[in-house]
Amino acid sequence: xxxxxxxxxIHALAAKLLLSTTMLVPxxxxxxxxxxxxxxxRVQYSFxxxxxxxxxxxxxxxxxxxxRIAYTMExxxxxxxxxxxxxxxxxxxxDILLKGTGFSYRSTGDNALVIVKPSSAAANGxxxxxxxxxxxxxxxxxxxxxxxxxxxxxxxxxxGMLGDTDIMDAPVSITSYTSEKIEDxxxxxxxDVLKNDPSVRAPNSGGGMLDTYQIRGFSINTGNSGEVAMDxxxxxxxxxxxxxxxxxRIEVLKGPAALLNGMSPNGGVGGxxxxxxxxxxxxxxxxxxxxxxxxEQAGGNVDFSRRFGKDKQFGVRFxxxxxxxxxxxxxxxxxxxxxxxxxxxxxxxxxxxxxxIDQREDxxxxxxxxxxxxxxxxxxxxxxxKNAVQDWQWSDATDQSAMLKGEYDLAxxxxxxxxxxxxxxxVDRLFGYPIxxxxxxxxxxxxxxxxxxxxxRFTANAGLRGDFSTAAINHEATVSASYYADTFYRGAVYSAxxxxxxxxxxxSVPPIFVAAPTAKPKLSETDLRGIAVADTLSVWQDxxxxxxxxxxxxxxxxxxxxxxxxxxAHYKDSVITPMVGLVVKPTDYMSVYANYxxxxxxxxxxxxxxxxxxxxxxxxxxxxxxxGIKLDFGTFGGSAALFQITxxxxxxxxxxxxxxxxxxxxxxxxxxxxxxxxxxxxxxxxMFLDAELTKTNSAATKGNRPVGTPKMQANLTAEWDTxxxxxxxxxxxxxxxxxxxxxxxxxxxxxxxxTLDLGLRYKTTISDTPVTVRATIQNVTNESYWSxxxxxxxxxxxxxxxxxxxxxxxx
Length: 811
Prior knowledge:
The protein is mainly β. The radius of gyration is 27 Å and the shape is globular.
């Protein structure tokens, strides 16, 4: 403590000399320099600081950035070290360092700041006539919210049309996983990362050809449309599976978000998954990694970035990857490639970015989720390495996409933004849909087929974002328009013969010839158009924030006969979806919030078997009410949320198809994150879910639980920097999911399951080259378990014990 005070006094003496020159600057000059800060605060630097004192942190932030940061008062001691890690501006770094201390900062000129205490009036001269000026990180138009202490999650995330928002200011529940978390976990896909979230599950097997997600008990089906957003826009990220190599952040906004992001292409209402792509930082990066595991797969990744120009306004970043080899599943091999190029320009008023992505994945013997014959009790899960798919079955997927975005500051408080992009997904595959026919685990590989898919997607958006004041009320307003379109093509040839096997003792069947489709006829078109307006009103120095908004969403789809090309169904409708969000901050470390949100799904068309065949239902409007509390103690935070989501759907009653079915999910979420001590990090949470079929066409199912909605999901990840071996970190993850029903009658189910993962990483320097070695063992106890059930009552098999090791070097 004494040494810290001594250092503080030394720094204070130096700071007084610097500050004395600023005392001669008139008040009007301060206003000018602070307005000018909006340009320089966009310049970002790569920080990796663990500050044991405020003085040390200020000194190191200044050393990395070259900024002059002064203070004239004695700084208080801090109980725990402050970790400042990631690419950010000096102001964002100071936000992390000073959080919870009562101190802030003001600009004193170009690349110069002075630390102030808002409650203090001890400063002299004209400076005392000014209220302290706080440069909030969330105001940066082109930066990201800084990494939170511990490095696993960020301190904020993107709220669609509202832009990046600090978690304490967000009237919704949002979690943003960082690239550091992705790398330390050795995650291959975004599904690997999202398994850390207790409100999210990926029910499809990782050994299959696609990933799907459940958020708050509602499914997000990624199949034939761009259901995962990229930089806030649907239609750009790869469709069936998203590799994690190009992701800077993986964000999860929980709950319906039709206003914020527009209607999702498949109508998912449980939440929004958004990928923030990597961009070039100010520091040159040459990173190479090699890895081996998850069976006998070997591969590596490269991450290269540079900035060019007099002011480093031009940036380029490339992420590439290649993996090949046998997986942990019997008979299966996988070859995957990734190439992602990100270009950007950061000018004084103009910012542009261009992302180009090419992703490919070829799988031999891709695992297929099982269906269960009615009346059969679900057999025990086999060993996770068992694969009942034939070795001559396969799938090939190719994704190519591009997105151009831009922002232009029309004035200091008004920004024009927009973007255009799209993607194309092509899939060829040969396999069937295995059905378990008895308790012994015999299966019939039903509907063996050779199919060829293609989905073309296009997206565009534009809008204005600005801030202004009316009396004592501050406004952050946004007006935007969005457009999404996709066209789906499919050709299929079915086999007259289906192979049989067993989940415990898979059999090998001679190859069955199925001819390739000669064409891919168009089956559907979708057009989604939206116009939205939102305003966040703030009073009492942003202690109370109220967000109001509404979106007019139009939906148009056409379905076509795959043989004749004749239009078989047409759907066109529109609806207005509102949003209300309230945030109240009774203290610096507490935020209480509540919201009302809506989500949209396309209404069904009555089937031919119904008396009203061909009638189009109105769009299904899912409604959420939620309230919660968030805590941020600087290096450790947490949250609690209560929510209810109701989602209508279609059903036939007395031979008439209508939209009066309903599912209601009520839940409690508890989460903690950050640093318990400077050497111990925690990322943990639990979701308790009460899901119910509240309106059905059968007394036998009314009141039952919906398919695939466990009563509880829990996660716990802990990391420990060992004192006996500097640079060595040990980590472990426990994941638990409760029982899930396979059918709406609740007569078939899969049991609960729990897995344990253990790992380590070691950071060192070899010949001036930073090197990181990582190793992970997943499912240490080699549990055999059914991992999940999707909307189609298809059951996935959990992975067996697997290991993965990697070595990363920064040259």
